[in-house]
Structures are given as structure tokens and as C-alpha cells.
């Protein structure tokens, strides 16, 4: 009791800062598990559902439609997620989401038509769309200096699962068939529930840091920590005032008035959407080249193994050097454009394997970094800036999925779909380079 009183009496001499460790490490592992549940199984969607979708019609169009709906639901949920995260804890919002996600998974077992599949994957996308920002927001509350490293750890966990998933899927299909495999995947999705339950409010684990007399006013990090706590207190004391705030203020839509934010969001949305859709159609492209299921499994395993190696190397590098995540995304996207173009010019197993490994190793530069771009640049506004970004990605994902199907039906070529997805990356690279040039010119002037 004495210790508590002493702290209260001298509370103005301390700041509370994120632990950068402790329970945060448990949260990191839990977020990794949640990502495995939400992102890894969809990477083998064509392997599991391909024959079933082929029996319903065009496999490529159905794949881009369903996976597009899933990703669209996931990212469009960013807007309601932003609102819910202002009212409730990350754990509660994540729990709502994982229950919806798991329900959609189990309903997929009984799939009998394309429209039914679309409904099930819409549920899954909406559910995981609540889980995703909840876990990321919780993680950024536990870490400041180690954000990039912890994100790398999460991506390593996801990448390790991605390596074994194609082989596991083939064995399950041989042993239990199509619906048995879907049922097992649905059971695995239940692991997301204990994962989100670990997302305790970070302020329970904040550490005290003694301030010098003049530090409270001059240290921007103190402003960061104190603002977080003050916002929470104001939320409780002025609930009636908060409920009368406008929609623009509550969702922070003023961010869309910032041209730099618009450029960041549009560029990241284009390159992220392109990467996700490209991964979904890799098996279809490989089958079009004449590779059998064993070859496809081997190449996908190489892809995820290279992805894992890239994540480990990026994690090590980020712990040594302070990386600017936006530049990491930009450089990786430029190289990806070149490699994808080469991907369409050869059908040699050896060449395809090498190109796939290179593409896999670069994928981490996008998936490790895109959330951290907003954490770096927008700090306290991370939740709203990232949630609005998710909405934009969802819209672009929906339109891109529909356009990919249209390109396939118009040309009858999966290669043209790859070219379309590669073109999307250019809409990230060019505006970002123009912005960098303008900023550099303004700085010199």
C-alpha cells in the first residue's frame, strides 16, 4: 500500500512506457499463430478447391472471385474495426472476429455451389478483418523500439507454417479427401481463439520511467506515452462528448486530405493487392505450364522456404540497421516487377524454381513492412491510418479481382493476368519516386 501511495503522490514525476518485452513476447507469438490461421490456408486454396471449382466452370475466374471476396472482406472491415477499437479493447474486437472467421470455416465443409463458397469466404474475410487490425494494434502498443523485429518474428512463424502447408495439404487430400481436408483446416482455425485471448490491454504492463524536471516538456517520447494515457482518461470522463463527435473525427477521415497519405495508401494498396492475387494464381500458372501436382507442391514449398529465409534475414538486418520501411517496400516492388516479367517468359522447371525463390524472398519486404510504414509515419494515429488503408485495399482488391477475371475471359490467358498484376505494381513505384524527387528538390531549394 505504501508503494502505491508513493507512486500516486509523485505520479507527475513518472511516465508510463511500453514494456518492449515481457508479456509483449507472448502477444507476438499469439499474433503469429493468428496469422497462420488466417493467411496460410488460403495460400493452398487452389490445391484444395481447384478440382471442385473446375467442375463448376472456369477455375481461374472462380479462384480470383472467391479469394478476392475473402481479401476484400478482410480489408474492408478496417472501417468498422477502427470504430470498434475506439470503443472496445483489442482482445474483445479480436474475439468477435475470430468467432465469425471460425464459423465461416466450418460452413465451408458443406460447400456445394459457387455462391455458397462466396458467402462462406465473405464471412471468413469479415471475421479476420476484425482480428487483423486488433492484433497489429495490440502489438504496436507493447513495442516501440522492437516493432520491426517483432513483426519479423511474426512473419517467420507464418513463413515456417507456409513451408509445410503445401505438403501437409497434399497428404490430407490423399488420406481424407476434399471435405475431410476442409474439416481439418476448420478445426485448426479454432487455435485462433486462444491466440486473441492473450491480447491483454498493454497499459497493464507499462513500465514506470522517472523523468527529469525538464524532460516532461521536451522529450517527444513522453508526449507519446502521456497522450495515450490522457486519451484513455478523456474517453471515460467525456463519453457523452465523444458520442457527439462527427463521423469524420471519429474515423479520422481528415487523413484523406493529406496528399502524402493518399500516395502511401494508394501505392501500398496496389502492390499488396498485386502480391496477394499473384500468390493465389501461382498454382494455376504452373499447371498451365504443364507441371503436375508434385511439381506444383515442390515449387510452392520453395516459394515459402525462400519467404522464410528472407524474413529471417530482414529481421536480423532490421535489428542491426534502422530501416525505413517505405523504402524497403519501394525497392522490393521494383525488383518484383522485373522478376514477374521474367516469370512469363520461361516454362523451364529450373528457371521457374529460381524465379519463384527470388520472388518468395522479396515477399517479406512487403508483408513485413507495410503496417510499419504507418507505425513509423503516423504514430498515435496508427489505428485510424491503418484501418482506413485496409478499406482502400479492400476496394482495390475487389476491383482487381473482377478485372483479373475479365482479363482472363477476354484473353483466355493466365499470363495476361500476371501482366495485369505486374502493371499494378508500377502504380506504386512511379508515384512514390515522383514524391521522393519532389521532396528532394524542395529540400535543396
- Mean model confidence by pLDDT: 80
As a whole number of angstroms, the C-alpha radius of gyration is 23 Å
Amino- and carboxy-terminal Cα gap = 60 Å
Strand order of the largest sheet: 1-2
Give the name of the CATH superfamily: MFS general substrate transporter like domains
Order of helices and strands: HEHHHHHHHHEHHHHHHHHHHH
Based on secondary structure, the structural category is: mainly alpha
Strand content: under 5%
What is the name of the CATH topology?
Answer: Growth Hormone, Chain: A
Question: Main β-sheet, in a few words?
Answer: 2 strands, antiparallel
Which bin fits the share of residues in helices? Answer: over 70%
Give the helix tally.
20
**Class, according to the CATH hierarchy?**
Mainly Alpha
Number of strands: 2
Number of domains: 1
Topology summary:
Layout: H1 2-9, E1 14-17, H2 23-39, H3 45-56, H4 59-76, H5 78-87, H6 90-107, H7 114-142, H8 147-188, H9 192-197, E2 207-210, H10 215-218, H11 220-237, H12 239-243, H13 247-251, H14 259-288, H15 293-320, H16 325-343, H17 349-367, H18 370-378, H19 382-411, H20 414-444
Antiparallel strand pairs: 1-2
Helix pairs in contact: 2-7, 2-8, 3-4, 4-7, 4-14, 4-19, 5-7, 5-19, 6-7, 8-15, 14-15, 14-19, 14-20, 15-17, 16-17, 16-20, 19-20
Quick overview of this protein structure:
Its main location: membrane. The protein is mostly helical.
Amino acid at each position: 500500500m505504501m508503494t502505491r501511495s508513493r507512486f500516486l503522490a509523485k505520479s507527475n514525476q513518472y511516465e508510463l512506457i511500453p514494456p518492449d518485452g515481457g508479456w509483449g513476447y507472448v502477444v507476438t507469438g499469439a499474433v503469429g499463430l493468428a496469422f497462420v490461421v488466417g493467411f496460410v490456408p488460403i495460400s493452398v486454396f487452389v490445391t484444395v478447391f481447384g478440382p471442385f471449382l473446375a467442375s463448376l466452370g472456369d477455375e481461374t475466374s472462380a479462384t480470383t472471385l472467391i479469394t478476392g471476396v475473402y481479401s476484400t472482406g478482410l480489408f474492408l472491415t478496417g472501417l468498422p474495426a477502427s470504430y470498434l477499437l475506439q470503443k472496445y479493447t483489442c482482445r474483445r474486437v479480436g474475439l468477435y472476429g475470430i468467432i465469425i472467421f471460425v464459423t465461416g470455416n466450418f460452413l465451408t465443409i458443406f460447400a456445394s455451389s459457387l455462391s455458397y463458397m462466396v458467402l462462406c469466404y465473405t464471412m471468413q474475410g469479415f471475421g479476420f478483418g476484425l482480428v487483423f487490425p486488433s492484433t497489429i494494434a495490440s502489438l504496436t502498443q507493447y513495442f516501440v523500439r522492437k516493432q520491426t523485429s517483432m513483426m519479423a518474428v511474426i512473419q517467420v512463424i507464418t513463413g515456417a507454417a507456409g513451408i509445410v502447408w503445401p505438403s501437409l495439404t497434399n497428404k490430407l487430400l490423399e488420406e481424407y479427401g476434399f471435405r475431410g481436408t476442409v474439416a481439418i483446416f476448420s478445426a485448426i482455425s479454432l487455435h485462433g481463439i486462444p491466440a486473441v485471448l492473450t491480447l491483454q490491454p498493454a497499459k497493464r504492463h507499462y513500465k514506470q520511467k522517472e523523468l527529469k524536471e525538464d524532460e516532461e516538456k521536451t522529450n517527444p517520447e513522453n508526449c507519446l506515452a502521456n497522450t495515450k494515457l490522457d486519451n484513455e482518461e478523456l474517453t471515460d470522463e467525456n463519453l457523452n462528448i465523444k458520442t457527439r463527435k462527427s463521423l469524420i473525427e471519429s474515423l479520422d477521415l481528415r487523413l484523406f486530405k493529406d496528399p502524402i497519405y493518399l500516395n502511401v495508401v494508394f501505392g501500398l494498396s496496389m502492390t499488396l493487392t498485386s502480391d496477394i492475387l499473384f500468390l493465389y494464381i501461382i498454382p494455376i500458372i504452373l499447371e498451365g505450364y504443364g507441371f503436375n501436382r508434385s511439381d506444383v507442391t515442390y515449387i510452392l514449398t520453395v516459394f515459402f522456404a525462400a519467404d522464410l529465409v528472407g524474413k529471417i534475414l530482414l529481421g536480423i538486418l532490421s535489428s542491426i540497421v534502422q530501416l525505413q520501411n517505405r523504402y524497403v517496400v519501394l525497392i522490393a516492388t521494383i525488383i518484383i516487377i522485373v522478376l514477374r516479367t521474367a516469370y512469363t517468359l520461361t516454362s523451364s522447371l529450373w528457371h521457374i524454381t529460381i524465379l519463384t525463390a527470388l520472388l518468395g524472398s522479396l515477399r517479406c519486404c512487403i508483408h513485413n513492412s507495410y503496417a510499419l510504414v504507418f507505425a513509423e509515419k503516423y504514430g498515435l494515429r496508427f489505428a485510424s491510418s491503418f484501418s482506413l488503408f485496409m478499406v482502400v485495399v479492400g476496394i482495390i482488391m475487389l476491383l482487381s479481382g473482377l478485372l483479373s477475371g475479365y482479363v482472363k475471359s477476354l484473353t483466355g490467358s493466365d499470363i495476361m493476368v500476371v501482366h495485369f498484376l505486374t502493371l499494378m505494381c508500377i502504380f506504386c513505384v512511379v508515384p512514390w519516386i515522383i514524391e521522393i524527387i519532389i521532396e528532394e528538390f524542395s529540400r535543396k531549394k
